[in-house]
Inverse folding.
């Protein structure tokens, strides 16, 4: 990619727990163009939040080891001092699944939204201007809500306040970590639409994290699928949804239920259960769950290579036919003829 905003290369993160090392992120590389939205998808424990936290340098200081480069407009975030990283946070922000837990419950809404600006040393008149504009972007009038505390707002409203807090520093990139996972289905769509609008008006780049490929589909230009800390498939959204090449991507797509806004949908846990991360696996980490696994999958770890849809896939026997089902809008037919 020519002149990426962000280029992550060989990012690995190890956590030690009770004397044992657990690799949460394993040699992950991706890049992001200015204004682009990259979806990061994978089941629980696949390393999504850890990647986001590594980018923002928010990983725990102890019992954590990480390596790799994270070039942001040519500056390696991995090498910045604490002070330099603090300044960098005017360009990079992160929002989390449960906004309420990141708010001080006694603080007034306008002070919460101004937090980043105070840290950046932005003078008071400018601060108020930016808080007003950020709140306005997420549908609040400062005069109408000033003085209220977080508990006076619903979950969806709190997430909008968290988005306003991120926007107030006028960032270029926001890492959105499961921003709608804790919200009702009807509110989820509102928050996603809001993020899409803001992305366009503010010319933002987003890294959009979700365990749900359906949520990521409408938001992302490109999608990276993670399994046990590794990228197993990455490419343009259209290719990945119409012609998913990795068996794991297909498992995730098949686990997406038909959308029914009247009920909260629970995916079939049997299809997406996570094997223990403490047990290292030789060859392909997905082989214990893969219907296409062959001898080579146990002995040789697959590396990312070009798939027939134009995306990159790490698999010895990738699918090369379109998928059937709700994501197959542009597909020509069913699954591979050999049915493996
Ligand atoms: N601070 C930590 N100390 C030890 N292990 C951790 C820590 N943070 C994450 N892990 C482990 O690293 C792995 C990846 O965790 P991570 O939170 O990045 O996954 P995730 O994809 O965000 O999952 P989820 O969808 O549940 O949020 C998991 O096995 C998790 O238990
Ligand atoms: S490499 Fe083998 S086990 Fe792994 S996903 Fe591909 S076919 Fe399945
Ligand atoms: Mg997470």
């Amino acid at each position: 990619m020519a002149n990426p905003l962000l280029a992550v290369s060989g990012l690995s993160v190890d956590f030690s727990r009770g004397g044992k090392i657990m690799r949460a992120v394993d040699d992950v590389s991706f890049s992001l163009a200015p204004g682009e939205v990259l979806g990061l998808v994978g089941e629980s424990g696949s390393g999504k939040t850890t990647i986001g936290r590594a980018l923002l340098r928010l990983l725990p200081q102890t019992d954590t080891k990480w390596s790799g480069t994270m070039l942001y407009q040519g500056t390696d975030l991995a090498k910045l001092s604490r002070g330099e990283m603090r300044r960098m946070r005017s360009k990079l922000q992160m929002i989390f699944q449960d906004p309420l837990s990141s708010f001080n419950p006694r603080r007034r809404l306008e002070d919460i939204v101004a937090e980043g600006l105070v840290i950046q040393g932005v003078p008071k008149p400018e601060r108020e201007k930016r808080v007003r504009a950020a709140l306005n972007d997420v549908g609040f009038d400062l005069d109408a809500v000033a003085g209220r505390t977080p508990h006076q707002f619903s979950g969806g409203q709190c997430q909008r306040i968290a988005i306003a807090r991120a926007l107030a520093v006028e960032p270029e990139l926001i890492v959105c970590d499961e921003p709608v996972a804790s919200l009702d289905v009807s509110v989820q769509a509102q928050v996603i639409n809001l993020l899409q609008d803001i992305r366009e008006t503010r010319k933002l780049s987003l890294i959009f994290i979700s365990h749900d490929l359906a949520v990521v589909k409408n938001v992302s230009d490109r999608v990276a699928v993670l399994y046990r800390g590794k990228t197993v498939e990455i490419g343009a959204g259209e290719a990945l949804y119409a012609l998913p090449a990795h068996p794991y991507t297909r498992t995730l797509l098949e686990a997406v239920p038909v959308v029914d806004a009247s009920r909260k949908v629970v995916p079939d846990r049997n299809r997406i259960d996570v094997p223990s991360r403490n047990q290292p696996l030789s060859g392909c980490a997905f082989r214990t769950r893969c219907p296409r696994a062959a001898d080579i999958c146990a002995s040789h770890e697959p590396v990312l290579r070009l798939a027939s849809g134009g995306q990159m896939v790490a698999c010895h026997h990738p699918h090369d036919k379109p998928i059937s089902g709700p994501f197959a809008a542009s597909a020509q037919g069913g699954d591979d003829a050999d049915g493996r």
Summary: Residues 185-201 form the longest helix (17 residues). Residues 258-273, 330-340 have pLDDT under 50 and may be disordered. The radius of gyration is 21 Å.
